[in-house]
Amino acid sequence: MNTSCNNSSWSCRSGHAIYSSYLEHSRIDMQAEDANAYVARALRLVIENVLAQLSTTLVVTISTRDLKTATWFEYMMNILMDSWRMVAVQLLGFRPDLVSNPVPGRKRVNLLMVDSYGGLLDTNITADNADFDDPDYYFIFLQARDHLIPKELQLILDHCLAHFWLHCNVMIQTAQVEVLVYTYFPYTAASCQEAHPVLVNTFDGRHWMRSAKMFPDKLSQMHGCPLTVLTWHQPPFVELLWDPKAKSHRAAGFEIQLMEHLARGMNFSLELANIALLPPNAYRLADGASRGPIERLQQHSVNVSLGYFRKTALRNGLLTTPMSYYSANLVAVLQLERYRLGSLALLAFPFELPVWLLLLLALLIHLGIHLPRRGVENQGGGGGGLQVVGLLLGASLARLPRPWRHRFIAAHWLWASLPLRISYQSLLFHLIRLQLYSTPSFSLEQLLAEGFQGICTANTQRLLLEMPQVARSPDRFHSLDTPSDWDVLNALQQNRNRKIFAVVNQDITRSFLHSSSHPSAYHVVKQPVNVEYIGMYMPKHSFLYEKVDDALRRLDAAGFILAWRRASFGFVHRRERVQHSSRRFINHAKLSGIYMVMAGMYLLAGLVFAGELVLWRRNLKKAKS
Which Gene3D superfamilies match (predicted)? Predict the structure, then answer.
């Protein structure tokens, strides 16, 4: 054979080509057929007992950079397909000799067959699943030479850790036909945030030794590893207090209490990263500065962000968030002083318009009867017009008219006006005591139609601008340079004479009103402006999502979250009430209506007295002449 190859190069090359073709099509160069069946049985048990329990669909991806390995994977799939009728399959193949783009779309449960870390990158599956929050599963079959397996295995597990693939297993087959499954634990007693290969299962030819732990729980015990919490001062959700002994900030509040409970259950420690919220013009993204909360989460420099962080569509698209543990209405609050009835309106309020019209008609009739006529002064009835007004106000007559009909009319007018005076005075003083207000607005649209200006925080303004009725008139809303709704309500209290209203959180409003020295001086519009949902945010596709979301749902179902929330708001309410107790004094502004009415009554009485005095002197001069 060697002689013929030396004598004829063409026949030698032909023989090698025939032999290579035989090897490729028969696949005997890979391994024995019984070894192929051994591996196929292992894969089939994984699919039927593990992957099929997670989803009714399965994505099988073959991605290799070696043609022979790709051919062998296809042969393995043929063996599986012969007896596989359990689940719908989407088969994807990536070969370097075929020019094709990866198939986009969500791939939740995956069986990947690769020959190297580079083959895994070619699938582009990282980008396909990066925008989804729910967990996904990766069972990766790595077929490589034994001396290459440790390096490729480590690269694949590092890739799983970097892209938050928590449920990531790698199956290998050695030259001795050993089928082993490795995974990694991101948090162990020896290291944190590292991906060291850990053997979790082996195949004995008939079944997996530990089939119930193919995807073990990796976050039930985090061995005290630290999680960095990005937060800021936002009571009562997060309250940062300076500890002089430790010379650092100590965190309290509703959300911190919730995170501490999670830390005890999952055994991790908290590291606070306190930042100061910047004004809106300092933000590069819609919700993040160059070192703002969103960008720091995207850069994976922190694990969780807390601090009254509202959920929005933009933030949900950029980050991962579990269930919302707090929701409340955004309400409009304004000073009732704007709806207080003025002095003239208060004087006219006791009687409705028909009563005033009838009273005016009766007054005109009596004035017509008592108007000075020829010979009235001679009869002693001087000043008849003023006498009619005086009788209406309850004044007595200096002298009775001589004609009996005038006396009868005066008596009738006096007695008829008596119940009117009693009713009017009683209602008037009752309404002054009640501090009567006109009907305030009941919706945001009415406030804007009445010419009110809105004030709020920058984050609230950004949320309001997404509403159509606000977007049509954005100049009607002004943001204050503060992240706290308490400061917005304080600004509303200090600007009593301006036509403004505040858009703030409903629970914070209740605490503020209870702590205020004049809670009845404010009006909360009945129709909510919007509804806000609060939650913690994590880097996109974070593997903490599944565990934290499940824990939050359990706490919410048991009522713990509601109890902690009420306690936090109640504590702030009690503290603010002590701080504002010194301001509780009698407000003379509430008595201004009484002062004005009494001054008006004395003025009117003085005018009537002066008129009667002038008429008396005129009549006296005429009598002397």
Answer: Periplasmic binding protein-like II
Instruction: Tell me the C-alpha distance between 312 and 465, whole Å.
Output: 12
Number of alpha helices (DSSP H) and beta strands (DSSP E) in the chain: 23, 18
CA nearest neighbour of 148 among 156, 138, 139? 156
Sign of the dihedral through C-alpha 76, 78, 84, 85: positive
Rg, the chain, Cα only: 43
**314: which residues sit within 8 A by CB, 6+ positions away?**
286, 287
Q: Residues with Cβ < 8 Å from 243, sequence gap 6 or more? A: 249, 250
> Which pTM does this prediction carry?
0.71
**Domain assignment of residue 6, yes or no:** no
Both tokens of residue 502?
Answer: 């505040």
List of E strands, 77-189: 88-94, 109-114, 137-142, 167-173, 179-183
Per DSSP, 440 falls in state: P
How do residues 34-75 score in pLDDT, each as one tens digit? 888 899 899 989 988 899 888 888 888 888 888 888 888 888
Domain enclosing residue 569, as ranges: 229-325+535-585
Residue with tokens 């914070």: 508
Number of residues assigned to the chain = 625
Backbone phi, then psi, for 137, in 5-degree steps?
-125, 140
Is 233 inside a domain boundary? yes
pLDDT of residue 78: 79
- Lookup: tokens for 496: 């009593």
Report the range out of 177-181, 494-498, 613-617 with the highest average pLDDT.
177-181
Are the C-beta atoms of residues 142 and 155 closer than 8 Å to each other? no
Question: Taking the CA of residue 459 as centre, how many other CA atoms within 13 Å lie in the half-sphere pointing to its CB?
Answer: 24
Cα dist from 413 to 17, 365, 407, whole Å: 132, 11, 10
Is 489 among the domain residues? yes
**End position of a domain, from candidates 502, 531, 560:** 531
Within this chain, do residues 199 and 137 fall inside the same structural domain, yes or no?
yes
Please name the residue that has the structure tokens 């690769």.
Answer: 114
Our CA angle for 58, 172, 119, nearest 5°, is: 65
Q: Is the CA virtual torsion 320, 322, 326, 329 positive or negative?
A: positive
Is residue 218 within 8 Å of 166, Cβ to Cβ?
A: yes
Q: Do 38 and 170 belong to one domain? A: yes
- Considering the domain architecture, whether residues 353 and 448 belong to the same structural domain is answered as no
Q: How far apart are CA 457 and CA 478, in angstroms?
A: 8
Picking from 82, 9, 18, the residue whose alpha carbon sits closest to that of residue 44 is 82
* DSSP annotation string for 480-543: ES-S-HHHHHHHHHH-TTS-EEEEEEHHHHHHHHHHSS-GGGEEE-SS-SEEEEE--BBSTT-T
Do the strands 198-202 and 88-94 form a parallel or antiparallel pair, or are they unpaired? unpaired
Cα atoms in the 13 Å half-sphere on the side-chain side of 92: 25
d(CA 314, CA 288): 11
The domain that contains 541 carries what CATH number? Answer: 3.40.190.10
In terms of phi and psi (left: phi > 0; alpha: psi -120 to 50; beta: otherwise), the region of 201 is beta
Inside any domain, residue 36: yes
Q: What is the C-alpha separation between 623 and 617, in angstroms, rounded? A: 10
Do 493 and 461 belong together in one domain? yes
Q: Do residues 322 and 545 make contact, with C-beta atoms less than 8 angstroms apart?
A: yes
